[in-house]
Amino acid sequence: MLKRFALIKKVGKTKIIPLGLKILLIAIFLILLSNFATNFISLQLSQRQIINLSNTIMVAQLKELYTNSSNQYQIYTYSNDRNEAFKVMKEVAASGFENPHSIAMGFDTSGKISILSSNSQKMAISNFSDKEALSELNAKYKEGIREGSLSFNLLDGEYFGIYKWQPDWNMYLVRAEKRSDISANTRRVFSFTSIIILCLTVLFVIIGYIIINKEFAQLHAFTQDLFDMQKKKQLGLIDISKASNDDITYMAASFNSLSSSVNNLLHTFQKFVSKDVVAKAYSEQEVLLEGTQQELTMLFSDIKSFTYRTETLGNDIIDVLNVHYNKVINKVHVNNGVIGSIIGDAILAVYGTLGSQNPKSLDAVISAWDITRVTANLRAAMIEKRAEIEKTRNLTESEEKIFKAVLLDVGVGIDGGNVFYGNIGSNEHMANTVIGDNVNSASRLEGLTRIYHLPVIVSGYIKDEVEKVSQRYRFFEIDTVQVKGKTEGKKIYFPFDCQEMDNDLLTKYELFEEGLTLYYQGEWKKAVKIFKSCELDVTEVFLERIGTQDAPEDWRGIWTMTTK
Q: Model-level pTM?
């Protein structure tokens, strides 16, 4: 739920920021920059005014201290009590302190402090420590300058203030403030003002967001539709049924027109090439003459007795094929396969080019049995149709031929391995294809289904890959054959579907497995007895092959095929 309303989305690795949010962020930045800059300049100017005001106050306080020091000097001439006079002068000086480090002092030309009064309890010094400032005061004194402004440093920091020479006591009277106290006051004002600015900004942002969100609500809906399209990697239409009549809606309507045209082209394109080529063309915006070596699984399916069906049905065979392929191709696509080619009654499917949770060979085996089942369902539908007709009349001779012709049956062979997969041809015309010995092997395995009377035959490559991830299929070895053009024998297997087939049939194949072991060992007479007891169609080829003879002396368990 939170992802749906996320302000910032991603298309691939690119972040997509809503236009309304950009405008709002820019406005916030400019408002804050303006407010803080204005506030900073105002406080800097105010700080100068504060310093000037502080100087004015200190002048008055220093004047009072100066007057009091003159009075105390008169009293001192009668009482001769210097300490009492200095004590009174300290009390007068401290009466005007406002800041934590306000200070007043009196020191002679050597820097010896006689009067020291400060708000800071830590301030306890006996000499004016800033020698440079003291030298400057003495230099001005020699020039006849007896009062003015003063900046100096003590142990705890920098001070600024004013001074006046007191001739009675022969000392400089100084009234000063620590510069950091004034800066601290400025910072407090700045912080307080900043908090007010931020609070007002948040309030205005909320109000602005509500207004902008309302104004850009339709644009947000458009971009959400576009984001969903990008996520699904397919073009669609933007909903403009509730959109206002403005240029943004016009842009969305133009996109819909373009999207419809592109989708029509893509759908047409997809009907003639495989899904992975369409996806690549959509993402890369081009299709090149290129290919790579890949480890793939190939499924080859062929309609049995196709010549008879063509001769019987004539042009109507096209309609029958279309009904058949509509089901078969769907099963290939559902199981993450792509159609490599369709050659008359045969179809080549390739697995491993699309992303899938299953290993490619498992998808291929599942497809093989799905193809076998949908073909069986078509036969069952035709048989049911015949039964309905025969309730009223018998089929004619020509109808009987047509009925047999439409009872399609298929064989499926599957093999896998390294093949070349890609586009071949020219820049004017190209085709997506798969080339390799394993492709030919899948075709040969399909041909063996007619000999061994099995719907599906696979290679050892398929068996090994499926057994690693699934216990659904049990692979029964059927034979070891050496096809024409090859020098080595190759084991072939029947993938028994443990979920769909009954246990009685499983028992028969287990018995067949025992007979095959004896057949390999050259114990043909014993093998024949077991083959006959299996009651499986696959045993017919072995019984015919063995006949009444014994195994040859050079028997290796490999049967050499004389045809492809």
A: 0.56
